[in-house]
Amino acid sequence: MGSFRYETHLHTKEASACAMVSGYEQARRYKEAGYTGIVVTDHFFNGNTCIPSDLSWERRVDQFRLGFENAREEGERIGLSVFFGWEAKYGSQEFLIYGLDIPWLKKHPEIMSWTVEEQYRRVREAGGLVVHAHPFRERDYIKEIRLFPDAVDAVEVINIGNDKKEFDEKAKEYAEQHKLLMTAGTDSHGYEKRRSGVSFDHKLTDIDDFIRSIKSGKYKLIQD
Questions:
Q1: How far apart are CA 193 and CA 96, in angstroms?
Q2: Hey, is 77 helix, strand or coil?
Q3: Per-residue pLDDT tens for 95-149?
Q4: Where are the domains of the chain?
Q5: Is residue 135 a contact partner of residue 156, using CB atoms and an 8 Å limit?
Q6: Can you tell me the distance from the alpha carbon of 40 to that of 12, in angstroms, rounded to the nearest whole number?
Q7: Residue 36 carries which DSSP code?
Q8: 63: helix, coil or strand?
Q9: Is the pLDDT of residue 224 over 60?
Q10: First-to-last CA distance in the chain?
Q11: Taking each helix axis from N to C terminus, what angle separates 23-32 and 66-78, rounded to the nearest 10 degrees?
């Protein structure tokens, strides 16, 4: 198991204010690093987005999708699978959302008023997966650490963007305590020297295959 490597946490400058490279560049970077695929998880409108807030909801979603679309276009050209997701923010806590698509987003502008618990219920109803990203990270912009063991499917227990190893160790202990699935990711913004993610024993067909494989436990965390 483990010959097909996938990045699970990645940003592009088309949609994330903190990212340094485009979707095209991210695709090339990961292909060169030997990855089979990436999931583009740009910061959503309640997070560190660079999408203007004065546009209509449909136009905002169309601009938000550009990093993913550019990565997918380049991925198709060079042989890299590219899947869609996003990173939602509630207070100081962030969540990776997998398995829902752009038409679904366009139909749900009310997403901005959801609580963490309602997000989980609605994402699950639509067949998606919710992962608590870097739950124990400490930064100046993080006012408090809040945990939601009943409103997530998994916990990100390896995050290359974390400053201290103890943040990952605490996340792993938390996931084990609550019997939650575990994921790993780089939290890529385009400048990282190291990478993480998950690896599988087969090439994923789509994001639904990613979710099924995570839920089955048939994967490994990439320890870089």
A1: 22
A2: helix
A3: 999 999 999 999 999 999 999 999 999 999 999 999 999 999 877 777 789 999 9
A4: 4-221
A5: yes
A6: 8
A7: S
A8: helix
A9: yes
A10: 17
A11: 40
β-strands 154-159, 93-98 pairing: unpaired
d(CA 68, CA 54): 22
Helix 57-64 with 66-78: angle, nearest 10 deg: 30
Of all residues in the chain, the percent with pLDDT exceeding 90 is 91
d(CA 68, CA 173): 33
Q: Is 47 exposed, middle or buried (0-12, 13-18, 19+ CB in 10 A)?
A: middle
Q: Residue written as tokens 């996003």?
A: 86
Which two three-digit tokens encode residue 75? 């991925």
Place of tokens 């990173």: 87
Task: Find the DSSP H helices in 11-164.
Answer: 23-32, 57-64, 66-78, 102-106, 116-125
Average confidence score pLDDT of the chain: 96
> What's the fold here for domain 4-221?
TIM Barrel (3.20.20)
pLDDT digits (tens, 9 = 90+) for 57-86: 999 999 999 999 999 999 999 999 999 999
